[in-house]
Amino acid sequence: MNDYWHSVILEEDYCNGCTHCLDRCPTQAIRIVDGKAKIINERCIDCGECLKVCPFKAKGALVDGLEMLDNFKFNIALPSISLYGQFSKEFEINKLFNCFYKLGFDFVFDVAYAADLLVSRQLKKLQNKGLQKPLISTFCPAVVRLIQLKYPSLIDHIIPLETPMEVAARIVRQEVMEKTGFSYDEIGIFYITECPAKITSIKKPVGIEKSYVDGALSIESIYAKLMKIYDELGSGRHIESVQQASAKGIGWGKVGGQSIAMGIENYMAVDGVEEVIKVLDKVESGRISDVDFIEAYSCVTGCVGGPLNVENPFIAKSRIRQLTTQYPQEVDLTKYADVEDSFFEWNQEIEPLQVMKLDSDIKVALQKMTKIEELFQHLPGINCGACGAPTCRALAEDIVMGRASFEDCVVLRNSKKEGSEG
C-alpha cells in the first residue's frame, strides 16, 4: 500500500473522536481508534467531505506555502477556475490575477482559458464511436479515484483527457522555457487550489507519469492577502492582461459548465459525492446507458464547492453563472491551433486501486466474504459507530482483515455484561 498517497491529513490534537467524519466518508476510509479519527490511507479519495463536516477543524490538507517559491528562479501561478466565483462583482478578475505578481509570482496564466482549449477535444472524443459511453469527465480527480477504487469496470468510460490545470501547466511551462531560457527544473508552477483532490492529482497523477505542476496553494490560505493587495494596487497602476477565458471556460467552475460549453444535450451533470455514487452504481449495472457524457463532481455545486474555497458554494455558483453572461462566448484560440491532440491526452493506462479486494487469491477472498457475512449476521445492525467503524458490515470486514475484534462492538459487549449480571 506504499504507492497510495493522499493530501487530507488529521490534526490529532484537535480531534475529540466525534463521528461526524465517520458518517460522511463515502469510501469508509475513517475509523475511530482510541478516541481519535484514523484515515485508512489507501481508501481515501481526498474528496474533502471530512474537512467540511469536522466541527473542530481536525482535518486539513497538505498544501504548500509561499516560501516554496524560493526553490525556483521563475514562478508561475495557475489560479483555479473557481477563483472567479470567490469575490463579489466589485472585484475585477483581471486585477485580481495581477495581485499574484505582488505575492511573488513572475507569471500568471488563466486556467479557464485552458478549459476553452479542451472543449473541442472533448467533443472529438464524444464523436469517437470506439469509446464506451457514457464518457465520464476527468475534471474532478476525487471522482476518478472513486472509480478506480469502487468501480474499476467503469475505467474505460473515463475520457482520456487531462484537466485544465494540467493543460495550462504544459502550455505555460513550454512558453516560459522558450522565452526566458530557464530550464524545466528552474521553473516552479503552482496551482491555486480549491480542493485536496487536486493536490493529490499533482503528487500522484493519473494517466501521466509526472505532473507538470510543482505544488499547490489553497485559495483560503491566500484569500486575505489577495484582498489586501487588490486595495493597495489602486486604480492608477498598470494592469497586465491576464484574463483570457471565454464565458464557456469560466463556466467550467460550476456543475454543468462543461456540457454547456460543448453545446451538447445528451449529458448528465451530477454533484455531491453521495449522488455521484448513486449514478455510478446505475452506470455500472447498465441502468444508465443512453447518455453520452457525465460530468460528476464530488463537491456540491462543482468546483466552486471545494473545501479549500472561501465563499459559500451557492453564492460562488451564482457568480460564475452571472459571469458567463458578461464575458464573450468565444475567444481567440488560434495561438494553440497547431498543438497536437496528444498534448491534451493521457499517455498511460489507469489501473484499478485494488484496496477493496479481500485477498489476491479468489478462493481466499470468497472465504473471507463468507466469514464477513456470518459475522455481520451476529452484529446488531444499527450502525451506531460506537465501535469506531462506520457500519456493522465495515466492522465485520475489519474483524476478518485483522483490524478489529468482535469485542469492539459496544452493544454486544454491554448485552453480555447485562446477561452475566442477571
Any overview of this molecule?
- 45% of the residues are buried.
- With 422 residues, this protein is of the alpha/beta class.
- Helix content is 38%, strand content 11%.
- It has 15 helices and eleven strands.
- The strands form four sheets. It has a four-stranded parallel sheet, with helices on both faces. A three-stranded parallel sheet has the order 7-11-10, covered by helices on one side. It has a two-stranded antiparallel sheet with strand order 1-4.
- The longest helix is centred in the middle third of the chain and has 17 residues, at 164-180.
What string gives the helices and strands in order?
A: EHEEHEEHEHEHHEHEHHHEHEHHHH
| Major sheet strand order | 6-5-8-9
Give the overall form: globular
- Overall pLDDT score: 92
Structural category is alpha/beta
Number of helices, counting only DSSP H or I runs of 4 residues or more: 15
What share of the residues does DSSP label as strand, in percent? Answer: 5-15%
Distance between the first and last residues' Cα: 47 Å
Catalogue the unreliable spans.
none
Number of domains: 3
Task: Work out the number of β strands.
Answer: 11
**What is Rg?**
23 Å
Most strands sheet: 4 strands, parallel
Helix content: 25-40%
Secondary-structure map with pairings?
Elements: E1 8-10, H1 20-24, E2 30-33, E3 36-39, H2 49-53, E4 59-61, E5 74-79, H3 93-102, E6 107-108, H4 111-126, E7 135-136, H5 141-150, H6 164-180, E8 187-193, H7 196-203, E9 215-218, H8 219-233, H9 247-250, H10 257-262, E10 267-271, H11 273-284, E11 293-297, H12 313-326, H13 362-378, H14 392-400, H15 410-421
Parallel strand pairs: 5-6, 5-8, 7-11, 8-9, 10-11
Antiparallel strand pairs: 1-4, 2-3
Helix pairs in contact: 3-8, 4-6, 13-14
